[in-house]
TrEMBL record:
Listed GO MF terms: lysozyme activity
Entry's family note: Belongs to the glycosyl hydrolase 25 family.
GO biological process, one term: peptidoglycan catabolic process
InterPro entries, sorted: GH, Glyco_hydro_25
Name by which UniProt lists this protein: Lyzozyme M1 (1,4-beta-N-acetylmuramidase), GH25 family
Native species: Mangrovihabitans endophyticus
Biased composition (Polar residues): 255-265
Length: 265
């Protein structure tokens, strides 16, 4: 079975009706939290969306857009933002690897995951990417061996409701063909979904598993993050337009159009 998941950006999906997502049958909401070591700090809408989704009974999550800045600082930055909603315990967490202007290297990815595991006592972590990005930048790197779960992006054509669009997804798309993943746990199959009052402007994902399995990946029983060594938390920075959006894919996909579309059909 598959469950429906929305991933979103507080600016590009501004005004999204979180409660409506739950009524429409979406099991989880994953929101962009941070980017780089200081490039993007989600505004207070992030906190509001997480609270509302929890109240509506949804599984919640957050993702960090990874670039090639200091990976230790990036993990600390991400966790600092998550601390405002209670930390990563009880949340899905993902690292988004698709930056084209300052792409992460193997060493950056490896150190990020190691630091994450140290700070969170091994809280489950999704690794989001697509063959269009991974093969030119990290080809041959077995990131799956580091214990992360695969979250693949591969888009169908058209726009509309997720359950309708998903009917176009071939079974082979669950086998990403990169990173050492035999099968992805999550598949982002459109950035033109309609849900929660947003029309044809939303990323929709399918999770391969049950609700219990999805909740298990929130690491609800994980220990609280270990504090970094005597570094101040960043100020709540005003939101600025990021160089790319992240898992939600709107600006990221416009950049991809100049390269290789992940869903060329």
């Amino acid at each position: 079975m598959v469950l429906w998941v929305v991933d979103a950006h507080t600016t590009y999906q501004q005004g999204m009706n979180i409660e409506s997502l739950a009524r429409e049958g979406y099991s989880a909401l994953v929101v962009k939290a941070t980017q780089g070591r200081s490039g993007y700090w989600a505004p207070t809408t992030f906190d509001s969306w997480i609270r509302r989704a929890r109240t509506a009974g949804m599984v919640t999550g957050a993702y960090h857009w990874l670039n090639n800045d200091d990976p230790v600082a990036q993990v600390d930055y991400f966790l600092s933002r998550l601390s405002t909603v209670g930390g990563p315990a009880g949340m899905l967490a993902a690292v988004d690897c698709e930056d084209t202007s300052n792409p992460a290297t193997q060493d950056t990815v490896r150190t990020f995951i190691s630091r994450w595991n140290t700070r969170t006592s091994g809280h489950p972590l999704f690794f989001y990417s697509g063959a269009w990005w991974y093969q030119p930048h990290l080809d041959g790197f077995n990131v799956a061996s580091l214990g992360v779960r695969g979250w693949n992006s591969h888009y169908v054509s058209g726009s509309g409701y997720g359950s309708v669009l998903y009917q176009k997804v071939p079974a082979s798309w669950w086998n990403p063909g990169y990173g050492g993943f035999a099968r992805s746990k999550m598949l982002q199959f459109t950035d033109q979904g309609t849900a929660g009052g947003i029309t044809a402007h939303l990323d929709i994902d399918a999770f391969d598993g049950t609700l219990a399995e999805l909740r298990a990946l929130t690491g609800a029983a994980s220990a609280a993050p270990t504090p970094p060594p005597t570094e101040p938390e960043p100020d709540d920075l005003p939101e600025s337009t990021p160089q790319a959006v992240g898992i939600d894919g709107r600006m990221g996909m416009s950049q991809r159009a100049n390269q290789e579309s992940p869903a060329a059909e």
